[in-house]
Design goal:
This protein has 200 residues and is an alpha/beta fold. 56% of the residues lie in helices and 13% in strands. The protein contains eight helices and five strands, in the order βαβααβααβααβα. Strands 2-3-1-4-5 form a five-stranded parallel β-sheet, with helices on both faces. α3 runs antiparallel to α4 and α4 runs antiparallel to α5.
């Protein structure tokens, strides 16, 4: 079985980071090599861009979108593609679909326009599976101890993002699976693991 590229997506506060780690642990326990990556970040260049994106001053929507695309291109080139080629599963805490939802939908730049901009740097490397953790944006924001620059945009922005994620899931049913994230973490993890095991 070849290695797969699995994305955890959703609005703020859905537990993506923790679920990604638990899923990777499960894969390793069943004899599959797996790594966890995060966006923005995952490479020295990407971590520097992450600091700007999450903790910097105000920036124009296209500046934000292009910085996300830049860190993603570096991550795919340096980490994702080499890992997959080596037979290692890649579990990602956010991917290009976050840009489609946050910058394409939330910022109003257009989903297809943002998709086109990102595609050039991805070299055809898109997630095999996107697990969308669904949660009321207001609940997700209430779970944050300290909001970053994007998390601080407020509930109306997050609602636009959530609506765009839902539209993406409906438009790409072969790629997306949804999991309710308003349950105990153990139940969410079990549901995600079940989706992956049923798929492969």
């Amino acid at each position: 079985m070849r290695a797969r590229y699995v994305a955890l997506e959703g609005v703020e506060g859905t537990g993506k980071s923790t679920v990604a780690l638990r899923l990777a642990d499960h894969l390793r326990s069943t004899g599959r090599d797996a790594i966890v990556v995060r966006e923005p970040g995952g490479t020295p260049a990407g971590e520097g861009i992450r600091e700007l994106l999450l903790h910097g001053d105000h920036m124009e929507p296209w500046t934000e979108a292009l910085l996300f695309a830049a860190q993603r291109a570096q991550l795919v080139a340096d980490v994702v593609r080499p890992a997959l080629a080596a037979g290692i599963w890649v579990i990602s805490d956010r991917t290009v679909y976050s840009s489609l939802a946050y910058q394409g939908g939330g910022r109003g730049l257009g989903v297809e326009t943002v998709r086109t901009v990102n595609a050039a740097g991805l070299l055809g490397t898109w997630p095999d599976l996107v697990v969308l953790l669904e949660l009321d944006p207001a609940i997700g924001l209430s779970r944050q101890s300290t909001a970053d620059r994007i998390g601080a945009e407020g509930v109306h922005f997050q609602q636009r993002v959530a609506e765009t994620f839902a539209e993406l899931a409906q438009a790409e049913p072969d790629v997306f699976r949804t999991v309710a994230a308003d349950r105990p973490l153990s139940a969410v993890v079990a549901a995600v693991v079940d989706i992956v095991e049923q798929r492969w």
